[in-house]
Specification:
Layout: H1 18-21, H2 27-38, H3 45-54, H4 56-73, E1 93-95, E2 98-106, H5 111-121, H6 124-127, E3 132-139, E4 145-152, H7 155-166, H8 169-178, E5 182-193, E6 200-202, E7 219-227, H9 233-249, E8 253-260, E9 277-285, H10 288-299, H11 302-315, E10 318-327
Antiparallel strand pairs: 1-6, 2-4, 2-5, 3-4, 3-10, 5-8, 7-9, 7-10, 8-9
Length: 335
């Protein structure tokens, strides 16, 4: 597998994750003896030791703070609040300067258990440390795939937020439930909005509460264009001026567009696909039938058939990748 944070059979990358959690939860004790026992299966052993001592105070403070927080409520691994938190700083704004597109491969038969755990436990707990969770999806073409997106104010904010979350009380309490369901979760693209205001427009205050199960027929399609080099600004302009109007005329509602963020990954324990140069855009539809009608109309459009389709595909490194996505109950992104 070339992708995945934690429970890959090839490598283990989730901080204090599944394999570690089965044998104990002392984060300091994990740094040395665990590395010795895992040996070459753990990618970046030396780097982990350096990073471990470099950020030791931060990590210990997070863990101690989490333990104190759990003691204060008398409940180890306290569950996320039942009512969604609102974040005025992010409400009804285009999210975000930095975005992760995460595609998880789950073990067969576990997705219907993983998603309720994620939605009840890992949304508010991430938002509490400054992360914005936007889209949460089932991949309708792969019963083992869960796709989700989260955003950050900056790369520095990402480092702090991920440190606070993965070494905080909620992840520490529930990682033992989540990790055994994860086969591969390294398939991660680090992105930023392709143009000013082109990110998802979301309002966290409108997220359904935990336990709500609204009927959702809406349908989201993500399209990933791969380029040999970083995405040219000329292509971004062409998308905004030519492709986007054409797609919307044919029936799509373009929700967002992003390009690869080329800053160094500041949270090295969660790898990203740094070698890829991508343009990613998302479209919303009322239902699958609306999407099929869009494809039919686009296929009959003279401009699309008259040159735009060919010019687009000739500019790409390889054929586009299409993600067919059904929003989960608590996803902020949909039609």
């Amino acid at each position: 597998m070339g992708h995945g944070i934690g429970q890959s059979e090839r490598a283990f990358r989730d901080p204090f994750g599944a394999r570690h959690s089965r044998a104990g939860g002392n984060p300091v004790a994990l740094i040395s003896p665990r590395l010795n026992s895992l040996g070459p299966r753990l990618r970046g052993d030396d780097d982990f030791i350096v990073q471990g001592f470099k950020h030791l105070r931060v990590r210990l403070a997070a863990v101690v703070g989490g333990l104190l927080a759990m003691l204060s409520v008398g409940h180890a691994g306290a569950a996320a609040p039942e009512k969604p938190a609102t974040h005025p700083g992010h409400a009804t704004t285009a999210c975000c300067p930095i975005v992760e597109l995460r595609q998880y491969t789950l073990y067969p038969g576990t997705r219907d258990a993983f998603i309720p755990l994620f939605e009840s436990t890992f949304i508010e707990s991430q938002e509490a440390v400054g992360i914005v969770l936007t889209g949460l999806f089932r991949d309708i073409n792969d019963a083992n795939r869960f796709v989700w997106m989260r955003g950050f104010d900056s790369m520095q904010a990402r480092l702090k937020a991920l440190t606070d979350f993965y070494y905080g009380p909620v992840w520490q309490a529930h990682r033992g439930q989540a990790n055994p369901m994860l086969y591969d979760n390294d398939n991660v693209l680090l992105l930023h909005p392709a143009a000013t205001g082109s990110g998802f427009v979301v309002d966290a205050g409108k997220r359904p509460a935990v336990g709500d199960r609204p009927v959702r027929n809406d349908f989201v399609v993500g399209t990933i264009y791969y380029f040999e080099q970083p995405v040219p600004e000329a292509f971004v302009a062409q998308f905004e001026q030519e492709f986007k109007p054409l797609f919307e005329k044919s029936g799509a509602r373009v929700l967002a567009s992003y390009v690869s963020e080329k800053s160094p990954n500041t949270f090295e324990r969660l790898p990203v696909r740094e070698q890829d140069n991508v343009f990613v855009w998302f479209a919303g539809f009322a239902d699958r039938q609306a999407y099929d009608q869009y494809i039919d109309r686009l296929g009959r459009d003279e401009r699309w058939n008259g040159g735009l389709f060919a010019s687009l595909n000739k500019a790409l490194q390889r054929p586009p990748e299409t993600l067919m996505l059904q929003p989960t109950a608590r996803s902020l992104v949909g039609h």
